[in-house]
Amino acid sequence: MRNLGYPGSSAPFVFALVSAILINACMYSFIRSFVMGYKKRVRYISFFAFIPSLFNFSVSAIASLSNKFIIPSFSWVLGIPNWVLCLSMTVVAVALCIVHNYIRYEKYNLISRNSIKEAIDRLPMGISIYNHSGVLLLTNRTMNDIAFTLLGDEVKNAFVFEQCLEEKRIVEESDTILYINDAYWIFQKREITLSHGASAYEMIATNITEEYKINLTLREESVVLSKYNQDLRRYRNNIVKVTADEEILNAKIKIHDELGELLLVTKNMQENATSAEKESLIRSWDTTYKQLRNYEAQEETVSFIDDIKEAASSIGVSIITYGEIPNLPIINTMIHECLTNTIKHGKGNEMTITSSIDGRYFILSCSNNGELAKTYKFKGGLKSLQDLAEKYDGKLEIVKGDRFTIQLSIPKERMG
Amino acid sequence: MEKINVMIVEDQAMPRALFEMYIKSNEKYNLVASIDNANVADIYCMKNGVDLILMDVITKGGASGLEASEKIKSMYPDTKIIIVTSMPEHSFIQKAKDIGIEGFWYKELNEMAIMDVVERVVAGERVYPSSTPKVQIGLCTSDDFTERELEVLRCIVKGYTDKEIASELYLSVETIHSKIKDLLSKTGYKSRTRLAVALMGSGLIIDDYQIK
Fold first, then answer.
1. How confident is the model at residue A8 (pLDDT cuts 50, 70, 90)?
2. What is the mean pLDDT of residues A102-125?
3. Which residues does chain A have within 8 Å of residue B87's beta carbon, measured at their own beta carbons?
4. A232, A240, A301 ranked by CB distance to B197: nearest
């Protein structure tokens, strides 16, 4: 018998044991790779790890039992001891098993097609991916459930499904929103590029019931608030008038009280009054009567131009107008400013205001018969007026001539 | 003795007639103008030598008596002005003081007769009421609000959001939330809108929108 060359009597037993374990592991992996549908390389590695494990087991087991090496020793061919060869093969088998398991465990970090499908089916949203012909590439359970409710069947053709969505959507909404099985769903479609470069459509259906209900509530409240706002605006417009009316009422009450007092005094004085007292009483009646008449007879001026004409007249300046003078803040400010200039700088006593239309512009000219200065600068009130004109997209300019004239041009559409 | 030239600026005919009567019945005074639009008040001052003006706060067309007073004071600093109003808007008094107006009279308060105020202002005094008229705002009165609360109320009347109020007053949004909550609790109103309506109705806050 050849020398087995194993270092010690227990070595064959150890090799046999290890080999037996490896054989089991390889067989398990090999069978599992078929069942789980692993890639072929996993099966090949299992197989290649199985062969040397089997050989090693056979040789080591027999050697440990009979202390004989009945299979021709490769060591004779390779020039290495048997035990080295067995050890090497064990190491190789172990390495292959490790690699195999590494690859297998690596797969736990990757997901299989089935896992992807399972995960997509569990999503709360509906997903459909289809090509430009409407043929489905992928659809999940949620989308199929929706299609079943709408069409009575699963999604077979995406374009038919799209048509159905269009017909059954909530018309008032700009997005495609449908009310399905007591829930609100929004459908969004977009074009995507697949991994191999082809383009396809992706339709996502999302349950927006909570948000939509809140939106509806907000819209209703908005309508109510808008009404409140309108009421408040109307109230604001009236409040000044209401307060003024209150003032008038209070004044009337005062006059009423004075009239009452006068009546009482008159009654008391009828018998015992002196002539002086009677005269005073008559004057009081006269005053009260005039006061009441004044109130009745007073004519209210209706526009700023009338007010400023009256004001100018009181200080000896006459204002002559040609054309219609609109009652706008910028117009009123300009007339006021020109009148101030007429008096303060020009020392004039006549001001002419002319309005006209020149194409798309409204033109207002103010001139006076005051002294002409050599130079004019836009400063103070004129500068403010110029800035105001620019806000109206208009312009203010001084027109040279035999009278000092300021001209304002405003686009007609800015007149309001 | 030279008469004191008085101008009345009041848009309501009845109160204007009353003031005219008071002035005309006193030999010390000469009524030079009685107008209803504060925007032309300065024009009347130009040649009429006006010594004293009784100026309403909001006149015809929303013209502001305070703005007109400011303009007149800049042109004619010696002209004395007495603001007359029935609106308890709390900022009017301070604005009047800032402009340098000599007198302020509330029509409804009856703390002092208008002619007494006129006499004292002509004599060189500055006559201001001791307080603004107290108005009821829900469960509390106008006296119960602090200065800061009045600023917040003004922003509410303007229709600002909490964020805008915080930005306007340089406070945090949380502080504004808290202040508004306190104000609603103080006044007993359930919403800002109702509070705004009550504020405007009482005249405690006059929005600049109404003063042109």
1. low
2. 78
3. 243
4. A232
